[in-house]
Amino acid sequence: MPRRILLLGPPGSGKGTQAALISKALGIPHISTGEMLRDAVSAGTELGAKAEALMAAGDFVPDDLVVAIVDERLRQDDAQSGFLLDGFPRNVAQAEALGSSSAPDIGTVILLKVDTDEIVKRLMKRGAEQGRADDNEETVRRRLEIYQAETAPLVEFYGSSVLAVDGIGTIDDVFARVALALSGS
Predict the structure, then answer these.
(1) C-alpha–C-alpha distance, residues 127 and 121, integer Å
(2) Can you say how many angstroms the Cα of residue 49 is from the centroid of all Cα atoms in its chain?
(3) What pTM was estimated for this model as a whole?
(4) How far out from the chain centre does Cα 122 lie?
(5) Judging by beta carbons within 10 Å of its beta carbon (0-12, 13-18, 19+), is residue 12 exposed, middle or buried?
(6) How far apart are CA 142 and CA 127, in angstroms?
(7) Second CATH level (architecture) for the domain 3-183
(8) Nearest Cα residue to 82 out of 156, 27, 155
(9) Residue 2 banded pLDDT, cuts 50, 70, 90
């Protein structure tokens, strides 16, 4: 049976790191919104051209276009045996649109739970190490507010499909908890 997984968690919760590990362990593609948009643009698809024009103008890509790009990506052969979505859906409207598209239903939602103080600490450290100006405390706290308002409601939307995993600890410790949660799903 195909594994169709959505990885949720606030910025700095370790989604990208865990997504790479899960994808490798299960042999399914790790599909992130950013990668999908870049791939659609570089492939020169009609949807990619629309997204490129919006991004070049500094605008957000609207939900319907993002959903169409995701739907197109999920139809590719490598996603037929399963996939891991990271960064999509970002809100309930995108989740509803995904559910009504031709894309297969999400089977499991992994929620990486990390408290706010830990996230701020992680992102401040990343900002200092990588010289990322956007990882300052004010910006980090604003991104967390946006996550709470727009993305956190997906936990209720997906309901019993959500498996909460403690996202604090070493990368290997967190992955062990994620693997345990997935083995029971």
Answers:
(1) 10
(2) 23
(3) 0.84
(4) 18
(5) buried
(6) 15
(7) 3-Layer(aba) Sandwich (3.40)
(8) 27
(9) low
- What are phi and psi for residue 113, nearest 5 degrees? -100, 120
Q: Calculate the alpha carbon distances from 49 to 39, 46, 67, 152, 185 in Å.
A: 11, 5, 15, 30, 38
- Percentage of the residues of the chain whose pLDDT score is greater than 70: 92
Domain coordinates of the chain in residue numbers? Answer: 3-183
Matching residue, tokens 């499991």? 108
Q: Which residue has the tokens 């509803």?
A: 96
pLDDT digits (tens, 9 = 90+) for 29-84: 999 887 777 787 888 888 788 878 876 665 667 888 888 888 888 888 999 889 99
Q: What is the DSSP string of the chain?
A: --EEEEEE--TTSSHHHHHHHHHHHHT--EEEHHHHHHHHHHHT-HHHHHHHHHHHTTPPPPHHHHHHHHHHHHTSGGGTTEEEEES---SHHHHHHHHHSSSPPP-EEEEEE--HHHHHHHHHHHHHHHT-TT-SHHHHHHHHHHIIIIITHHHHHHGGGEEEEE--S-HHHHHHHHHHHHHT-
Query: Which residues are tagged catalytic?
Result: 15, 90, 126, 132, 143
Question: For residue range 86-143, what is the model confidence (pLDDT) as tens digits?
Answer: 988 989 999 998 877 666 678 899 999 999 999 999 988 888 888 877 677 888 888 8
